[in-house]
Design brief:
This protein has 6 helices and 5 strands; from the N terminus they run βαβαβαβααβα. The chain has a 5-stranded parallel beta sheet with strand order 3-2-1-4-5, sandwiched between helices.
């Protein structure tokens, strides 16, 4: 199972995802892609083994992903303060992967009907969804 985490800005969300997914999901190949070098470095410090930075790595990783996890902005061109390019957003949106998008109401993208939750709660829910997908694929 190939899981891709995409994050930008400071990479804190991605770093928390790396820690939680590594701890709770066994037998996965985890790839992290930062939209900038700081995000990539932060995810590497959190324990990511496979990491890259920028537009082309997002495009390539999305082709190979079974699950893509990141903030909802990864499917919106020009989000994350302009770090998500049109090619990145299209690659994530068109990927033949399950997308687990974390609804952060930042960067002028607000998600209606989603209650404000702290990052820890959102991360726990995302990791639970990843683990459920892995468990369901292994049992089929």
């Amino acid at each position: 199972m190939n899981i891709v985490i995409i994050d930008g800005q400071g990479g804190q969300l991605g770093a928390q995802l790396v820690k939680e997914i590594t701890a709770k999901c066994q037998g996965v190949e985890l790839t992290t892609i930062g939209t900038n070098a700081v995000a990539t470095a932060t995810m590497l410090k959190a324990g990511a083994k496979n990491a890259a930075t920028g537009e082309n790595p997002v495009v390539v990783a999305c082709r190979k992903a079974d699950i893509i996890v990141g903030p909802i902005g990864i499917v919106i061109a020009d989000s994350l303060l302009g770090e998500v390019t049109e090619k990145m957003a299209i690659a994530v949106a068109r990927a033949e992967a399950v997308r687990i998008l974390i609804p952060l109401n930042k960067c002028e993208n607000l998600v209606a009907g989603v209650a404000e939750m702290n990052i820890g709660t959102l991360i726990s829910d995302a990791v639970e969804k990843v683990n459920n997908i892995i468990t369901n694929k292994q049992s089929s």
